[in-house]
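User: Quick sanity check before I run a bigger batch. Here is a single chain. Can you write out its predicted 3D structure?
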Amino acid sequence: MTPLPRTPLAGARPVDLRWLAGSWLGRNGADAVEEDWSLPGGDTLVGMFRWVRDGRVRFYELIAIEHDGGRVLTRIEHFDPGLVGWEEAYFLEVAGSADPRWAVYRREGADRLVSYFVREDGSGTNAGLFESARVSGAER
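Assistant: Done. Predicted structure follows.
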């Protein structure tokens, strides 16, 4: 695995992640997962995530990728069905966290997305691997 960066990439902006824009459907084990990402705007990308197990929503996420103080941060809010929030705010970044994690999004070809979470020491988390394919509205 490539070592995780210790400092922000110079000049990185959310617009550099515009390839995420669109709808992605995939699996985590037997569970269905879905991510939808907006086009960049206002120096942010905004995404929605839904995890479905046995035909029922397990949880949702609202995700913002923002430029903040020279860094690009991923901010996530989790919700149970009924939009009951889990936390006030959850930041995926190294500094200031008891269990720092990196959200890794890797594009493999034009229409394949692999994502996972990694701790600062390089070990995986219990969330596992998410493999998704880009879909159009007609394929949903």
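Strands lie at 22-28, 31-37, 44-53, 56-68, 71-80, 84-85, 90-92, 101-107, 112-119, 130-135.

User: Great, the batch can go ahead then.
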